[in-house]
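Re: the request from the purification team.
They wanted to know what the chain is likely to look like in 3D before they choose a buffer screen. I agreed to run a prediction and write the result into the notebook, where they can find it.
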Amino acid sequence: MEIKIILGSGSPRRKMFLEELGLEFEVRTKSVEEVYPEHLQGKEISDYLAQLKAEPFKAELKSNEVVITSDTVVWHNGVSLAKAADEKEAFSMIRTLSGDWHEVITSVCFTSKNFQKTVSAVTKVKFKEFTDDEINYYIEEFEPFDKAGAYGIQEWIGMIGIEEIQGSYSNVVGLPTHLVYETLMSL
């Protein structure tokens, strides 16, 4: 039986990665309120949210369909930095990450009628110390409000600001492609 892949995300970056992996898939999106229990930490948050995003699809999945949902968390000093609501919050997030290490954790949930499997990757990223002007320029020119931690590694700030990275680059962009490929091949 051939598996039909559904990407349960409107993210252009995740769509691009699946295309670059040479996969045939369909994009379907469902709205979910991304709220998680306060006691969750790091990977527990991204796992929970990736699974939560799969919930609305479960009832409608056909026996040969697998929906891929995911969530990315920027974890710094015991705090999850989600998507910034506005320029002030984006500035605060990037200022907090400036000159320090943080973790980018992406969990990917594979859901079918009969099973659910969640995998995750953790990448450590070290930013240089940013000036206020650099942060403001980035926010004004790139409007990073749809990204965890208020930044995109593939954008200007990543080019000028990343001093070191340990782990998967594609994970920081939003999808650990090596894990997605491995998991799909195992199905």
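For the purification team: The longest helix spans residues 43-54.
Please add any questions underneath this entry.
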